[in-house]
Amino acid sequence: MGTVSVMPVSWTSYAAYLTFAVVVVLIPGPDFAVVVGNTMSGGRRRGMWCAAGVASSNAVQGTAAILGLGALVVRAQPVFQIVKWVGAAYLLYLGLRLLGSAWQGRYAVPSASGGQGTRRGWRQGFVSNITNPKVLVFYVAVLPQFLNPGAGTVALALFALSHASLSLLYLLTLTAVMHRARRVLARRQVRRCLDGTTGVAMIGFGARLALERQ
User: Fold this and answer.
1) How far apart (Å, rounded) are the C-alpha atoms in residues 96 and 203?
2) Entry pTM
């Protein structure tokens, strides 16, 4: 029976990885757009659940990378392409919905509670992230570059879950900031502008994802 390698973590490499991960997290992308859209349409609680959905997906993909499943998906081009196209289609769908909302300009008061809204927020965050192959590539191809040769499961888990935690912290902070500015953001013209901008961004992310070659 083989043994699991549990080589100690190089804290210098870990610090460099955290710095890199923070930069990656702060770059606006599909996760940012989805959380903004959910916070605007459903309030802080729904935005927080959307952020939790993104973090849950990061944890799942990080775990898949640790178990070696992520590498299999990346190398299996038909599977990888299916994931990519599903992700692109989902982002286009969400973007078109936001554009439709901006066009109509009919907004109800954001609900701070409600099981359906929170479930929808979590689902949108999870699906938009789990169908983004760039996240899986990050865990499979980028993360190992910061590990010592032969680094074990503990080191892989630490690095992967650290990225998921940083993403969650950032998106929760984003939701809180938007909630504090809700009086301004809730104005009809501001909402229409935000929905239109976020919708265009989502469609752009979806189109770029569909057109990129792996």
Assistant:
1) 7
2) 0.75
- Taking each continuous run of H as one helix and of E as one strand, the counts in the chain are 9, 0
Per-residue pLDDT of 166-205, as tens digits, reads 999 999 999 999 888 777 766 767 777 877 887 787 788 7
Residues 6+ apart with CB under 8 A from 133: 74, 80, 83, 84, 87, 209, 214
CA torsion sign for 159, 172, 177, 205 is: positive
Q: How far is CA 97 from the centre of its chain?
A: 19
Contact 90, 127 (CB under 8 A): yes
Tokens of 46: 């729904």
Nearest to 38, CA basis, from 150, 146, 105, 126 = 126
CA distance 7 to 148: 8
